[in-house]
Design brief:
The protein has about 230 residues and is of the alpha/beta class. The protein is elongated. About 20% of the residues are buried. Strand 1 and strand 2 form a beta hairpin. Helix content is about 25%, strand content about 20%. It has three domains: about 45 residues, no CATH class; about 45 residues; about 120 residues, 2-Layer Sandwich (Nucleotidyltransferase, domain 5). The strands form two sheets. The protein has a five-stranded mixed sheet with strand order 6-5-4-7-8, sandwiched between helices. Strands 1-2-3 form a three-stranded antiparallel sheet, with no helix packed on it. It has six helices and eight strands. The structure holds zinc ion. Zinc ion (ZN) binds next to loops.
Length: about 230
């Protein structure tokens, strides 16, 4: 609660109603203004509001979500917190991830891999037609952090990841997504799909990933694959 208090009032308590700076504690997360009696909560409007579990459990869950290389799993979270079911753990993860989305967020920068995949199945959208069938096609952008010399896998650590449902894999559909989410001057890696040919002529340094398994199993680009699978 001290931490949440610091986040809300980093320069000391300010009553949201009258601007007063004096308060008394009125509950675990409640602070009452000494001037007007207004009660302000440090958890109102946060994911801690209405939580049945102690906030410490939520901090544990947030820490797991933030630090697991491949994301927190529902099973792992269920066990770590002692939740009753994977469904509950899923709800927790969903709540945490929703809170992590910032509407004013910055675009991805540096080296960024771009690919598409179908949501609801592991199949890649490759092939001659890239028809969408019954599934939703999502475009994905993945930021690649620098490779350390100790890293022998050849895979970059992943930075920020974004997924958006797109109508199809045409340049018309993919272009706004790329321009909205990747900084100009970024280095963009795609496969050889023709829709990406605009990338090279649009501020970006474009690298076409070759040697993928387009013809046999339609693998996604390696980092995009790591990010969504
Ligand atoms: Zn007040």
């Amino acid at each position: 609660m001290d931490y949440l208090f610091q986040l809300r009032w980093s320069d000391g308590f300010v009553c949201p109603k009258c601007g007063g700076g004096e308060y008394r504690t009125a509950g675990t997360a409640l602070f009452e203004c000494k001037d007007c009696g207004h009660q302000a909560s440090v958890i109102a409007g946060t994911i801690f509001q209405d939580a049945r579990r102690p906030s410490a459990n939520w901090f544990t869950a947030i820490w797991r979500t933030e630090t697991r290389k491949y994301g927190a799993s529902t099973e792992g979270l269920k066990q770590a917190i002692g939740l009753s079911s994977c469904e509950t753990a899923w709800t927790w993860l969903h709540k945490i991830r929703s809170a992590m989305v910032r509407s004013d967020r910055a675009k991805l920068s540096g080296i960024v891999e771009v690919d598409e995949t179908y949501i609801g199945g592991g199949e890649h959208s490759g092939g001659a037609s890239r028809g969408t069938g019954n599934k939703a096609l999502a475009a994905i952008v993945v930021e690649l952090k620098p490779l350390s010399t100790a890293n022998k896998t050849g895979l970059h650590p992943l930075g920020r990841v974004r997924l958006f449902v797109v109508a199809d894999a045409s340049a018309e559909s993919l272009k706004p997504f790329i321009e909205d989410n990747i900084e100009k001057e970024g280095k963009v890696i795609t496969d050889g799909w023709a829709s990406y040919s605009f990338v090279a002529s649009n501020w970006y340094a474009h690298t076409v990933h070759v040697g993928g398994k387009k013809s046999e199993g339609e693998q996604m680009l390696p980092h995009a694959h790591l990010a969504v699978c």
